[in-house]
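Could someone model D-malate with this protein?
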Amino acid sequence: MSIAEIHESNKSSVDLIRKCLTRCLRGVALSQDDNLLNLTSAHLNIGLRGIPVGTCRTSFVTPGEGVHYCGYPISELADFLPEDIVYLLFNKELPSEEQSEEFVKELQSRGNVPDEINTILANLPRDGHPMDWLSIGIHSLGMLAKQNDWTEDALDLVAKMPRLLGLIFRYRECRTDNIPEDDLNLNLVERFTHTLDFDGVDREAMNKILATYLVLHMDHGGGNLSTFAGKAVASGHATVYSSMAGAMNALSGPLHGRANQSCFEFVQSIGTSDPVEVEAFVRGELAAKRPVFGFGHAVLRAEDPRATVQFALGEKLCPNDQYFKTIRTLREVAPRVLSENPKISNPNANVDIASGTLLNYVGLTKPEYYTTFFGWARVAGIGAQIIDERVVMRNGKGIPIYRPKYIAEAQTLRHID
Ligand code: NMX
Ligand code: MLT
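Reply:
Sure, complex below.
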């Protein structure tokens, strides 16, 4: 079944869900009798597309305006301190100034990464993908530092991520001499760039781009693959760390988080910002049946506001950067070309179009690391959603172990003679 046919078969359910969402946004709760889905066999084997399976307290995604965190459109949150947005996702309210300062301190107090991590990272294969390092790093932190409490572990992990990620860069790149001690007086982003300690970069610009990147990527509803996978693992009462390592494995796939690596490699390979040449390149990719990276989305039907925010940042920071000029042209050209194919539900730019260009500009030049920043950010949203599903929902009882139904295919009953 094609994606267009799936959307067609989902239409009545989509309308039902949209009506419920509109009511929820007005503060009207769902009732037990709300009909959400007219289920037919057309809904089988479609990756659960559009099938409602639960509720999400941290964020929702609308086709026109993209992700909202606890009701706030993402475009209104982009300039906040990442710690404030972690606070929002965990507490469902933005912090006051005082609460913000306290929360920054709380995360600093939870940030210590045990020394044993260094030995583990020192022995990983250097050519392994950074996402595999991240997953192993998180799993290892769990073995060394878990408290076996959903909230404590989720907050601890948020606090330990900058140092863990900084160390992953240092060990994987064999830059192991003179690694600075973690400075727990700094904020989350500063602790990462302090551990990284790159020469010849504008640290302030790097911190700003990373802070915005983190805020934009922290959460994206309940059903994106890594969040869903993390919550599924947690539903069997694996620890937050094991669940998050599972989520990172899901994020590492090229159709999900790792698309941001492919997207910047794609932009680099274009090699021009001339509209005629860029159009020819895009048409060539489509003719070769390759994706035009940075465009399209499963849910959005307009340009992703996370892309809009990053384009605006790029116009201020690096309007004449060669890759920025390429993506500026792509943003003009690609939607027009992609619109020629009616199968493509959303020809507009997605979150990945600009992030690599900005990271590269501030000195984070290796695309293979880009998905680790996505993972770093998502630890907040996934952690908050795990807590909600484990200890808040169903009046604190939590959601039972995930167990969807599969129907037998090509298996007639038979017996050993
Ligand atoms: N380039 C080429 N083909 C595309 C594109 C694109 N940018 N977007 C959609 N299509 C194709 C898609 O592969 C599918 O083909 P088929 O029927 O042969 O399987 C058809 O158009 C319909 O797909 P949609 O329903 O529009 O999108 P779907 O939900 O299946 O996929 C993406 C969403 C994001 C996987 C898809 O748009 C894509 O592959 N984009 C390019 C890669 C990319 O930028 N990935 C980053 C995603 C980041 N994000 O999700 O925010
Ligand atoms: C995400 O941010 O997780 C991506 O946009 C993918 C999705 O929402 O399915």
